Amino acid sequence: MRSVVAAGNDQKTRRDTRHGVLHRVRVWRDRIRARRTGRMTLRIAIGLLGGIMVIGGLIMVPFPGPGWLVVFAGLAVLATEFAWASRLLAFAKARVMAATDWLQRQNWFVRIVASLLTLTCAGAIVWAAVKLTTGIDLVEAALTLFAYLPWAQR
């Protein structure tokens, strides 16, 4: 009986701690915003952090990986202080949801074609990035390796 009560108290403590941390962050942010210089400093810091995240995400967009995720995360950071970022984030969410809903309504052939086009574009971007940065042509290297496979020789 005692262990059940202790487990219940642990869960309540964890929930209160999580709530307490969020509350402390809000109180800390409100104390900073209470002063004119603190409000401006907070806006500048959030603007810089969000801007760096958006720019870094946009640089990562052409490459396979979390580029768009970082862009949206940067917009979410900016939206905590700037109304224009909040409107832009809502607009982007609506467009992404509309495109996702449209693709889900399509038949399997359209989904496969969309996936193949996406993979082809990602592959072309990776090929171009490797070719331009290192000078290695991945297609040529793959064809050279393919020629050495035993079943590919005549």
From TrEMBL:
<feature type="transmembrane region" description="Helical">
    <location>
        <begin position="108"/>
        <end position="129"/>
    </location>
</feature>
<dbReference type="InterPro" id="IPR013434">
    <property type="entry name" value="CHP02611"/>
</dbReference>
<keyword id="KW-0472">Membrane</keyword>
<feature type="transmembrane region" description="Helical">
    <location>
        <begin position="41"/>
        <end position="61"/>
    </location>
</feature>
<keyword id="KW-0812">Transmembrane</keyword>
<protein>
    <recommendedName>
        <fullName>TIGR02611 family protein</fullName>
    </recommendedName>
</protein>
<dbReference type="Pfam" id="PF09656">
    <property type="entry name" value="PGPGW"/>
</dbReference>
<keyword id="KW-1133">Transmembrane helix</keyword>
<dbReference type="InterPro" id="IPR019099">
    <property type="entry name" value="Uncharacterised_PGPGW_TM"/>
</dbReference>
<feature type="transmembrane region" description="Helical">
    <location>
        <begin position="67"/>
        <end position="87"/>
    </location>
</feature>
